Amino acid sequence: MRIGTQLKDKQPTKNGRLVSTIVIVGVYLLLFIFNSLSDFFNNWSPLRPIVNQDQLVDTLVNASVRTLFSAIVLLIISTVFFLGLKEIANLFFQQNKWTKRAFVLLNSTYFLVSNLVNIVLIQFSIVKPELTLIVYHDKFSNNMIFLIIVGTILLLNLMINPIFLKLNQRLNKINLLHLFGLSIIFSLGFYGINYVLLNKGWTTFLYLIGIIVMIDSFAYIYGKRFGKIKMVPEISPNKTWAGAIYGIITTIFLMVVVSILYAIPIIIGMVTKSNQPLEVIDPHNLLVNIYYITFYQKTNNFIIFWWVFCGFAILVLATIAILGDLYFSYVKRQYQIKDYSNVLRGHGGILDRFDGFCFVFIAFIVYQIIISSVR
């Protein structure tokens, strides 16, 4: 996300920024394409399980091909994750190259292996019915899997971070706090991204990206035009209250419009007074994948409540995206760097691009766990 000017540095060329932008867009397109082909829950993929006599039927071939496409998606995400870990390692482990490599290798290996296991469990859950309970039918098991992953990440970083900082002669409370914060937030954010792509599909991923990109862009535009009062000038000089407030309002309005577009199948079903179940009315589960519940066949009061809740959820996620930007900028200020790297010329580093992303996707996963547990 955009940040204020910090230390003077060579301005990247326009060509470099253009190339980086093309690469970023290309990565997103590849994610959307391969994810749509590997989508297990929606009807986008020709390889999806089919309904036969009210039961889902899958084949070993289809499950294997979907797993391959899911693995490609994971490989793309893991590459970006690997580059982000290198930026964290370069910031804290400058004295000892071995600790850089070990930090990146341990975190990236666990990320790759744990997500690959999750892919196999999901894609083969119909072919191997004994996996179904583990994957999504048992809320306790599903939440326990997530807690095990989170707990392992926390334990891993609690064990290795102090040791690696000490080997680099940089062990103190400030460095340990910032290293732990960046490592955990970045790791959980990318686990969230992979979870959304694998379990919720590319439409949910696009929806969340829409919130992040809109608040980022509109806050910048309004801030340039109307911003006078700075939010936190010592952290991000370009962040203004006007930009944040107007940006959030615009984001809420536009994303509610997007939500209405996502809800068209449901609206049509209600207007025609269809008695068909939700999975028939909305086979792609556009809103279900995001909010877990919809307003289909509900009372008027619930419909009003649902749309108010939708706007509130967008407000919360947009605010969280801004906080993510400020946190990552704060860490850069502490270490007097302009960007985490120049791997994306004109855009900074991976951490500069995925600051708000990490916070938003973590918040989304927490919401999914809470709502699925109480429903």
UniProtKB/TrEMBL annotation:
The keyword Cell membrane applies. One of its GO terms (molecular function) is phosphatidate cytidylyltransferase activity. It comes from the Bacteria. Pathway: Lipid metabolism; Phospholipid metabolism; CDP-diacylglycerol biosynthesis; CDP-diacylglycerol from sn-glycerol 3-phosphate: step 3/3. It is found in: Cell membrane. Its EC number is 2.7.7.41. It catalyses: a 1,2-diacyl-sn-glycero-3-phosphate + CTP + H(+) = a CDP-1,2-diacyl-sn-glycerol + diphosphate. This is Phosphatidate cytidylyltransferase. It comes from Mycoplasmoides gallisepticum (Mycoplasma gallisepticum).
